[in-house]
């Protein structure tokens, strides 16, 4: 019984000590505010919304269509001599949408899929390319003109956060006759 009580008391003390891990000692409120401002400035400098970090990555979308299928090929070419490391915040590396002539979205690649929640990294060596491909079944679509938008969903490039993907292209396709 004494052993059980000792184990219980030690467990409670351990858990109580774990709860104190974030306490800072020896810092004043002014120092905390200054440190927070510096951290926020560093984070803002790392965020990119379309300029600089990916100047040497070229994005191209090509489609190939048969009567029943549309193949969408997204190519990201690294024109630099240095490797580029892309990080994706989930297993979803791209999004494809089809919009009809009335402006209604009639297809979304991710609509009926589940993706892993894990950081996934792809390295594109200098002078090489990353090719992502998806096949869309066309038998559910009415004949007509559609806008296809293909986006590579990148979270970071070379550890620099991307707030808006620069790798998006829209092409017009004709389904049926």
Automatic annotation (TrEMBL):
Family matches, as Pfam families: BsuPI
Residues annotated as signal peptide: 1-19
Origin: domain of life: Bacteria
Signal keyword on record: yes
Boundaries of every Intracellular proteinase inhibitor BsuPI domain copy: 57-152
Matches recorded under InterPro entries: Intracell_prot_inh_BsuPI, IPI
Keyword terms of this UniProt record: Signal
Entry protein name: Intracellular proteinase inhibitor BsuPI domain-containing protein
Origin species: Alkalihalobacillus alcalophilus ATCC 27647 = CGMCC 1.3604
């Amino acid at each position: 019984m004494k052993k059980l009580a000792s184990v219980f008391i030690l467990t409670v003390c351990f858990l109580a000590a774990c709860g104190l891990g974030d306490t800072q000692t020896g810092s004043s409120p002014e120092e905390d505010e200054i440190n927070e401002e510096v951290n926020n400035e560093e984070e803002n400098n790392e965020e990119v919304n379309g300029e600089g970090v990916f100047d040497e990555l070229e994005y191209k979308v090509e489609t190939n269509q048969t009567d029943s299928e549309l193949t969408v090929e997204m190519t990201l070419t690294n024109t630099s001599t240095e490797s580029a490391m892309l990080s994706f915040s989930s297993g979803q590396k791209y999004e494809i949408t089809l919009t009809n002539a009335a402006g209604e979205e009639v297809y979304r690649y991710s609509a009926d899929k589940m993706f892993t929640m894990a950081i996934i990294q792809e390295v594109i060596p200098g002078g090489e390319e990353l090719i992502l491909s998806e096949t869309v079944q066309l038998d559910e679509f009415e004949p007509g003109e559609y806008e296809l938008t293909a986006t590579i969903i990148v979270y970071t490039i070379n550890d620099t956060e991307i707030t808006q993907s620069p790798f998006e292209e829209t092409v017009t396709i004709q389904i049926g006759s």
